[in-house]
């Protein structure tokens, strides 16, 4: 039987491959591509951490919540993600707890729709992994570090402008001991027409 | 803008006579007309805005043919490939000289990148601002203020990877790698209908000391987790232009910079907290152009200081090096505008400029009496050019005297376009420069400047400094092909003699108990300054550029460099060899720019370079473990910048990733190791 880390590495490669194929295979810009910044999609949901990599021996991770906003870009979609998760130190191995707030911009594609209104989705993420520590040890309560990630998933219509989004995400945080986070996530997304002021701002 | 007006032969002779009395003005950069001369490059507008730069000094990374070293990672010392010294930096027509007493310029430059409209760099000697810049020059042309009342602002912040993050209270705890910046810039301007304008700008930034080798060298001056700031700059600037009240056009600029920093003294072997201040005022302009002889003038005064500031940082170790230096510089220039001389109808005109310039420098140091605290330089110069349609030659001559030592130079350039798509350029130069005119720290050290020096350090200075001589030659061939492909071949050679260069050997003295491993240590200098270094440097480069498909531009450039020291037995050969072995032999860069209309762009640069060798640091590297390197390995660096304009051009947001491959990069054997870093910049204008 393969160890868990091997399985996760394999899953990660499949995820990256899926995201890469979706990004590469997406017609860009598709004829149905909306006008850039004409719409805004807001998404809210939760995620569960499958693996915390090098953090595992030191912290327990809670389930996370997240929110995202996206808009049609010149090709594909672009947006901003924010998440929240609690890491509890494992006794003496880590002497403090922390709140983690990953904030990232993303660019991706959502080709389709296919049968049943299903869309494949893939995106690349770049941002910062904000950390708020429970103690002011070492002089600082807050820290942040570069985060890069990729995601692949699908979305299903729920009726009207609502969709259900499901996916898996891989995030890599470039701390001195770099760690990777594997997540599965689910959320609901609603599409809005972008107000004129927002279009003016983004264009 | 320079006035060009045809004159009759008689009036021309009168003007020439007056010019001979007044002596002569600088020739324009070859690129002023948008054409790059050999060993020159011009960056302007969108390429500058899309490159993902955050500071003016970053320009030397973007420009071709420049090398930068930095002891702290933030204050670079640039030099043109094949040149031994640093270039003259000019902003808005105002030279920014080294100082005080040899300290590098760029760290206190009171100009923000957002103010720069164009950057023109010359890697060969150039006549500029009435003086010869023997090691090349960087001229920053600043944006004129928009009509009416306007305001601009900018903010940038960077973060380098490698923080301990969640491991900071575990057994994997390491030293924090702090953020880069923040950097702030704000400017307000008012421009009237007749060209009069007023600008007020302010920039501020702060960088931190978290690099391990630097932390180890500065253990005795740290009283906080971050340590003293590597750089903390506050620099206001006021510029007033008048085109209405007085005859002619005039510009008054007043700027000030205060910098808290940790300069490393080569004679000491480690950093000392210090504060630099620089205050300058300059007025320049053009006297009424309706006279026979239009005149340009410039007058500037600068006061610069460098003081040790150990108590501010709570130094624990005593005795602590203490110093207090000051330098006053008065500069003046008077020259003609461009005069167009014609001997008759149909003849090709000859454009002439001429002028006089001079600098007076007075140095002083608390507790010391300098042997000769004054350096006086007087110059006379002239330049001729023939702006014909085919061959376009230019000739510039300068003679100078610095404290009784003769200097001068002759620069010749010509461009020829055998056909519409092809151009050949040639540039030749000879420069003789008295060492005192360079303003180097070694000169002031020889005058008795009390530079901090380690007790065990050995510094040997010459009895006198010779004037250096250099001959330069550069050639460039470029041709455009159908389909938008443009190929350029470039090459150059330099011959130096009587150069004053250090032959240095740094030992290593460990720090006993550093807070964070691995242990580091300070350098133990053994420096012998030689005045007879001689040799040659050579470079050749090839560049191809095209746009395919529309909106995606590609540029590929490769350069090879070599040097040869003239045989000598007294250390001159070693000194010359030490200076140029650090230049990588091979360098290449591929740049791709994707632009979606005017509003969104992505630029990627992949730079490859071969190893650098710093023989002076061999002993320190062998004794100091990872703290020092005498060979900086070959590396591959990938940079990426994404720029988006927002809100009808009122806002511009930029995300830049530097060293995306996360290679450990060093630009100096004693400097910090740089890893992957992300920068966010926001710019606003109203």
3D structure, described in words:
The complex is a heterodimer of chains A (about 200) and B (about 675). By secondary structure, chain A is mainly β. Chain A contains two helices and nine strands. Chain A has a single domain, classed as Porin (Beta Barrel). Chain A has an eight-stranded antiparallel β-barrel with strand order 1-3-4-5-6-7-8-9. Chain A is elongated. In chain A, about 35% of the residues are buried. About 0% of the residues of chain A have low confidence. The N terminus of chain B is likely disordered. In chain B, a hairpin with an 8-residue loop joins strand 19 and strand 20. Chain B has a 22-stranded antiparallel beta barrel. The chains are: A mainly beta (about 200), B mainly beta (about 675). The interface between A and B is medium-sized, with 38 and 31 residues.
Question: Any chance you could write out the topology, listing elements then pairs?
Answer:
The complex is a heterodimer of chains A (203) and B (686).
Chain A: H1 4-25, E1 39-51, E2 59-61, E3 64-72, E4 77-89, E5 98-109, E6 119-133, E7 142-159, E8 162-173, E9 179-193, H2 196-202
Antiparallel strand pairs in A: 1-3, 1-9, 2-4, 3-4, 4-5, 5-6, 6-7, 7-8, 8-9
Chain B: E1 6-7, H1 9-22, E2 40-44, H2 46-49, H3 59-62, E3 66-69, E4 77-80, E5 88-91, E6 94-96, E7 116-122, E8 126-128, E9 131-133, E10 137-142, E11 148-160, E12 179-191, E13 197-207, H4 212-217, E14 231-242, E15 249-261, E16 274-286, E17 295-308, E18 324-336, E19 339-341, E20 350-365, E21 374-385, E22 392-402, E23 405-419, E24 422-433, H5 441-446, E25 458-460, E26 468-480, E27 486-510, E28 521-547, E29 552-565, H6 572-581, E30 586-596, E31 600-609, E32 612-613, H7 618-623, E33 631-632, E34 635-646, E35 651-658, E36 677-685
Parallel strand pairs in B: 1-19, 5-10, 25-28
Antiparallel strand pairs in B: 2-7, 3-4, 5-6, 7-10, 8-9, 11-12, 11-36, 12-13, 13-14, 14-15, 15-16, 16-17, 17-18, 18-20, 19-20, 20-21, 21-22, 22-23, 23-24, 24-26, 26-27, 27-28, 28-29, 29-30, 30-31, 31-34, 32-33, 34-35, 35-36
